[in-house]
Design brief:
The strands form two sheets. The protein has a six-stranded parallel β-sheet with strand order 5-4-1-6-7-8, with helices on both faces. A two-stranded antiparallel sheet has the order 2-3. Helix 1 crosses helix 2, helix 2 crosses helix 3 and helix 5 packs parallel to helix 9. Strand 4, helix 6 and strand 5 form a beta-alpha-beta unit. It has nine helices and eight strands. The longest helix is centred in the first third of the chain and has 21 residues. Helices cover about 45% and strands about 15% of the residues. About 40% of the residues are buried. The chain is an alpha/beta fold. The termini are close together. It folds into two domains: about 140 residues, HAD superfamily/HAD-like (Rossmann fold, 3-Layer(aba) Sandwich), CATH 3.40.50.1000; about 70 residues, Orthogonal Bundle (DNA polymerase, domain 1), CATH 1.10.150. The radius of gyration is 17 Å and the shape is globular.
Length: about 220
């Protein structure tokens, strides 16, 4: 294998770290809002891709948040909405993210991210987390105006790295994303932090672990 591509939101950065501020704004509802917001965000990316009605990830993220606060009857102010959205540029990296990525890079792997996020948001989030310098490529679904699991998104990785999909490891904490990448032809690693069941989609990632450190071990043993 020559290198690895990583999902960003949920894989390198903890999307649920927004719940701290959400709880401060809406006591007793922070965890529920963080979960509902993420679920609606993913739902909207799928609806827009299926309907060929693309909007940037930042817009989709705001739309999902506005829906959720309305559905939960939270009565958020514009200032609160802006503050919550700003958290996406300051998401907490998972504890092992830096060390695992540095280990892979030191072993000679080419590293990139392949994300639904639009470029300004992704670069800001990775930079604030201290991870941006570790990557050779920052690849965004925005460039093809569609979201994962569209094949056009996964194809960005093979074009950027200049190697076949079966020589690249794709790493995601989202089971559906890992399976989408498997369908495309990548070697895939599912970071299953929560012990979730495998998605029933007729295939499976090539390997599974609980942390990015497990993904690093898998990749390094296969580099050439």
């Amino acid at each position: 294998m020559r290198g690895a591509l990583f999902d960003v939101f949920g894989t390198l950065l903890d999307v649920y770290s927004v719940q701290t501020l959400a709880e401060r704004f809406f006591p007793g509802h922070g965890t529920q809002l963080a979960q509902a917001w993420r679920d609606k965000q993913i739902e909207y990316t799928r609806v827009r891709t299926l309907s060929v009605r693309y909007a940037p990830f930042s817009d989709v993220t705001r739309d999902a948040l506005e829906f959720c606060v309305a559905a939960m009857g939270l009565g958020a102010t514009e200032e609160q909405l802006r503050a919550l959205l700003a958290q996406y540029e300051r998401l907490t990296p998972f504890a092992e993210s830096f060390d695992a990525l540095e280990c892979m890079r030191d072993a000679g792997a080419t590293l990139g991210v392949l994300t639904n996020g639009d470029p300004p948001l992704v670069r800001a989030a990775l930079d604030n987390a201290g991870l941006l310098p570790l990557f050779d490529h920052v690849l965004s679904a925005d460039s093809v105006q569609a979201y994962k699991t569209a094949a056009a998104v996964y194809a960005l990785g093979t074009r950027a790295l200049g190697v076949p999909a079966n020589e690249v490891l794709f790493v995601s904490s989202n089971g559906w994303d890992a399976i989408g990448a498997t369908w495309f032809g990548y070697v895939t690693f599912w970071v299953n932090r929560t012990g979730a069941p495998l998605e029933r989609l007729g295939t499976a990632p090539h390997a599974t672990g609980r942390t990015l450190a497990d993904a690093a071990t898998f990749l390094i043993s296969r580099l050439h």
